[in-house]
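Incident log entry.

Two folding requests arrived from the same account within the same minute. Monitoring flagged them as a possible duplicate submission, but the sequences differ. Recording both here for audit purposes.

Request one:
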Amino acid sequence: MVEYLSGGRVQGSSTAEANTTVTDDLTSDTDWVSTVTGNGYNATYDRVDFKISCPPDDSSFAGGRVLIDLQDSDWLDGSNLATNFVMRFKWKLTDATLVTSGSETRAYLGFFSDDAWGGTSQDYFGVQVFMNSSQLYPLRVECIDGGTFQGGTETRTDTTLTPVEDTQYYFELKKVGDVHSFTVTTNSDYTGGQTVNVTKTGITNLRYFGVKSRGDSQSANGIIEGYISPDIKLWNNVTSVTEDEKTTITNVPANTRYEETDTRKIYRKVTPTSVTYESDFANNSTGWSTSNARGGFDTTGAWSYNETSTPSNSAKINYDLGSSIDTEFVLRWRMKTASGTKPSNYTYFYLVEQDSLTPTNGTGFVWQGSTNKINIGTQSAEPSSSFTITANTWNYFELVRTSLSTNGIKLYQYTDSNYTSPTLLLTSSGSTTGDERYIQLKSTHNGSVTTKVYVDGIKFYNDATSVSTDEWKERNTA
């Protein structure tokens, strides 16, 4: 929990437990349904008991079951579990009486798409407890996609843990997409122990949580008995149960000191760099001038051009920033080509002084596909440095101007839209006047090709030489 201390200090953890979707402390019955004596909500001890056998048929769920409908108003209130979720609870085995007649006994603990017994086809993700006349076997995680229990469609992975009677275990069941994991430990903070996974597609519509018996005619007399105890915690539609607490703080001023208790790191509150203008085109293309038939906004939302005409044709769009920019700026964008012959034309991405195909002053980036060369500088810069843009792969660029003098601009490349770990590509000089007002995208070509070039994800930061998107800076790094 975040603690607000005197002297502008705040303390918290980078691995704190996130808020749950549902927490059931089992101090009251939230409509658990059960059959057969020994199964059900236990009001005396505030727990959920199970006592599972393997009957010959499904009459009155003779093998025993105990379930909660997760659509209950105390749980997900009309919804099934999401694709991603985590549940934690305590589990104890109190009796594992081996089979002396019949074949085997199995108990299925977890999530089900149907409340019917295991002889009915359903989706299932959970933990199986299995024993026969010779032994109790290690716990196993299991998934079934539209099949019966032990019907041949199950996919499972065994742990190495054979549960010991009257030992307190802590279970975590986690689903992230098609990966279903089970962690078992004896540590109350759910650390340590062991984790096993099953990757299985098609596990959907999980609506019920609890314990069921096997669904065929084993007629075994073995018993698997125990209980689930509080708290039962469910995090729905998440992939992790932890969160970095400093990301949840919104009500403190700049320069507040944050002390991370689990790492002993010190941070200070900063104001992220303000973006002057941004556009991903799909959601914001307002204000851009109209291009011609060879260039425009693609169905994907990116600006694109397709050079299929004769020489001396160009495609251009401008955005008017409203006034001349400052000397210092940062311009970010992403760029890619489609498959095919790379264009022999030039692709320009510039800040220019006039709304013109041939502006007097400009500072920016130029690329020629057929030669795999780029450059930065004024509007007359020629591509001269080797750089390959791979087809159908976004390349992320950042142009930074720190001065109007020699070597006042730099071009960086990044691997993704997070813009971390820059690679310096070029250092050069741009406009010496600094009168730019328009963001300009332009292509000029001297041949007929059919490959599209895309530009998107524009962010312009005026009066800045670097960009910080963090709200907290670690001490000695800022």
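Request two (distinct sequence, not a duplicate):
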Amino acid sequence: MPVDETAYSYHRANGRTHWRWQDVMMALEATDTTLFPNLTPDEVVKAVSERWDLTGRWPTPKWAVECPTCHNTRVQAQFWRFSRYTSHNGSNPYRCNVSMKCTRCSYVMMFGVFIPQAMYDAHLNAGTKSYHWREVRKQMEQESHAQL
């Protein structure tokens, strides 16, 4: 879907365009209902699961993430934030915002991933909805040791 740059306010720094996060979030919410028109929540999750692994506790990409600035493939996930949009008019209000940072140029990108309600509920019942990468790594290590 093409983005209308006039809808955003931005500034130039070091030859790069930096979008204000408030403008980006408002634009995403404004176009949100057109992302998956007329799909049920299960159909949305199925479409998203083609690019994201939603079988574990945290959504992880199924592709090699590459920095759009320097094309480095050593990109590290930093934060997972689970949320439910109450004023959501689309077909699935459950999301996990996954932020990733390039280890070379420090460019940060965020992916708003539609997730199943069960994944959201599991984190809500655990008492937290936001995780730092160190905590996720520790929990993944504990889960892998428990499966051995």
